[in-house]
Amino acid sequence: MEQFQRVVADIVAGKLPQQSDNVTIYERSFEKIEGSNIIMTKSGTEKYLVVAGNGALYNELDGESVGDGKVCALTHHNSKVLNKHFEYTKPQAFGTEIATMGLGDRLGVASPGHIETVMNRKVKPILAQQSIRELTLLNRTMTDILDAATFAVFQEGYKDGYGADADHIKLEKDIEYALGLGFSFLTLDCSEQIRNDIEGATTDDIHKEFASLPVDRKEYYKNHYLNKSFEVQGLEISYDEASLHKNVLVYGEAIDFMEHVYTEYIAKADRAIDFEISIDETETVTAPEAHFFVAEELRRRGVTVQSLAPRFCGEFQKGIDYIGDINQFEKELHEHAEIAKYFGYKLSIHSGSDKFSVFPIIGKYTEGLLHIKTAGTNWLEAVRVIAQVNPDLYRRMHKYAEEHFEETLKYYHVTPDLDSVAPLAKTADEDLPAYMDHDASRQLFHVTYGILLTAKSSESGADLFRTEFFTTLMNNEDAYRASLVKHIGRHLDLLGL
Ligand SMILES: O=C(O)[C@@H](O)[C@H](O)[C@H](O)C(=O)CO
């Protein structure tokens, strides 16, 4: 810890420490608060808070004494101390007044680049966003992602607000846990309650099942929807008996679940929560009239949502551009955007990474009433950096990903043409980064992140890639930051944000 002597001496004197060969100084983090001076630093590949003085902040941070100061690891305890003393390091809800972007960070090191990307733009960052699926595949916790966001915001001196999305939550215990941790955004995944089987049912079967519903339910739906017309910005929406019965059966249980969660958790929360309904991860494409039916039912039941994610026509596969008829997509996206505006919530786009061909359409019709989610693409930019600076590591990861790809298909729906991937053995080192520009190799890495970052040697039990991956990335932090600023910046430019 001797390398911190000068840093400590400088902040004891209230001076911004000078950069040195051994210690990187994150100048925007420097804070002087009630008798304590503090700054974020990095030595080697590890980051530390360096604090001096005699205030509460100094006394409450856990760290190793160096001179008249302390050098503090980025622990959960120290994250909560920062939250206590610096309000801007805590996540917040944004409502529907400004566009928001989910910037899922599977590594816990992307947020500084994300913060730089969104500065001075018409969008707020949801820096902490990981689904239960991602957390499970990476052996990470919700606390880990909140801590990573807290330290990144402090490091960057970013005081314009960020969010934390407990993403694709299905279980009430996870809702309680996430809200208790301080998450500001809850994405309720209703895929378990949506009746995909109705899609293939015969009209007679649908009528019979509808007829079996309680009389009062049937009367309610008939009175409010049957042969009724709703006009949404020129879009005429109506429900005959067949379409009403189908929507009631497909979405009825899901809407009950949404109402329950809103009533029991969101409405009772002690702070504003951005509540998102996710019906995107289902086989059933959300027709505009189905979107309206769900939204109108939520309105009738007094449920307020800040965003809703339909399942769009075509395919929003991970890490690659839109697949489908762009003209049909434009027609339906326009209708979905008008429905969202009619009810006053943001249209949410999941798997929003890399959908460059449809971003102008999305930006045109949502007009900023938009939430767009990315995650895996930020991991792929890290893989790109590895390919650039550590070709041997890239080659070993690429080979392992190819060997284990099939295992990921139980978690993700991707259909890469792996035969189109250039043979690794025939690819020169300088051409390795180009794999991140090819759809199939992008998807190969996109969905094998968990396998790669938790892979262990069968002999020694040591991790195969993780340690070297993070060491390489932390030794090339600026390259990763620049890659994110360029790639996510391209997303926002095309969205008009
Ligand atoms: O991979 C995941 O589970 C998440 O990134 C999830 O897909 C997220 O909701 C998303 O859509 C990010 O693009």
From TrEMBL:
Swiss-Prot/TrEMBL cofactor(s): a divalent metal cation
Active site: D167 (proton acceptor), E276 (proton donor)
EC number: 5.1.2.7
Record GO terms (molecular function): metal ion binding; racemase and epimerase activity, acting on hydroxy acids and derivatives
Gene expressing this chain: uxaE
Protein name per the record: Tagaturonate/fructuronate epimerase
Biological role: Catalyzes the epimerization of D-tagaturonate (D-TagA) to D-fructuronate (D-FruA).
InterPro entries, per database record: UxaE
Reaction(s) catalysed by this chain's protein: keto-D-tagaturonate = keto-D-fructuronate
Organism: Gracilibacillus kekensis
Keyword Ligase belongs to the record: no
Entry's family note: Belongs to the UxaE family.
Enzyme class: isomerase
Top-level taxon of origin: Bacteria
Keywords: Isomerase, Metal-binding
Binding site for a divalent metal cation: H168, K318, H350
